[in-house]
Write a structure and sequence with these properties.
Length: 245
């Protein structure tokens, strides 16, 4: 089967903004007014690189809304431990949005939802409409959205080239048999950055994607192991956090 001729890139703005800001932490880009423009400079470079090298027929950029999401309503402590956004990033965001609008690129944003919710929705609908879709981000959580014609596009970083993950790569990365199991693993492991507690005893000592995948696939064989019994005892404690995010 031939690939679709329509190629859509969906960029996770905040993931790329943070990446750009910290990439220049040792040599920040300061303008004549003393403003640290690293986030804007790096983000714009990422957009230009996609436009010139990947030549998408369509593109959109997902931003976060300032309105609390439905996850905050379900779990009061959602992202409760996250550090405040650096001031240098805060002052860059209006400039970045202005640049995106100047390029004529749609800003994808909806109150009550995060950028990955919006990107996932658009990606699924676009793939069904005949697009080849690439979600550009470093966020591993996007792995749960990968399917036929939808890919996780991880930009180059620290000398490592671009990485494109389709269904086979996600299955291998997480050591699972079905992409839908990524959601199970994320819920079981938890996520410190989002203050999702997860279930203690799940995911292996390193709590890696592969470690959690092994635990999930071998669960029936571990009934008598102490680690498995510990995890079972902690399931009830984890349930108030709600479903996997």
């Amino acid at each position: 089967m031939n690939k679709p001729t329509k190629k859509l890139f969906l960029l996770d703005a905040m993931a790329l903004i943070y990446r750009a800001h910290f990439a220049f932490s040792k040599a920040p880009r300061i303008n004549s007014k003393g403003m640290n423009t690293s986030a804007t400079f790096g983000f714009l470079n990422s957009v230009l690189e996609v436009l010139h090298k990947e030549k998408p027929t369509h593109i959109g950029i997902g931003f976060e809304s300032s309105v609390p999401t439905f996850r905050h309503e379900m779990f009061d402590d959602y992202k409760g431990h996250r550090q405040k956004m650096p001031d240098d990033i805060v002052v860059n965001i209006p400039y970045i949005k202005s640049l995106v609008e100047a390029f004529g690129i749609p800003l994808l944003m909806k109150d009550g939802y995060e950028a990955d919710d919006v990107i996932g929705t658009v990606a699924t609908k676009a793939a069904a409409a005949g697009f080849e879709v690439y979600m550009m981000t470093m966020d591993k959580d996007y792995g749960q959205l990968v399917q036929d014609h939808i890919y996780l596009y991880k930009p180059s970083y620290m000398g490592k080239g671009v990485e494109i993950l389709g269904v086979p790569e996600i299955l291998n990365r997480w050591n699972i048999q079905d992409v839908r199991q990524v959601t199970d693993i994320l819920g079981l492991q938890g996520d410190a950055s989002d203050n999702i507690p997860g279930v203690p005893g799940v995911g292996g000592e390193d709590r890696s994607e592969a470690g959690a995948g092994i635990w999930l696939r071998r669960k029936p064989d571990c009934q008598r192991r102490a680690t498995h019994r510990k995890a079972e005892r902690n399931f009830d404690a984890a349930r108030p956090a709600g479903p996997a995010f």
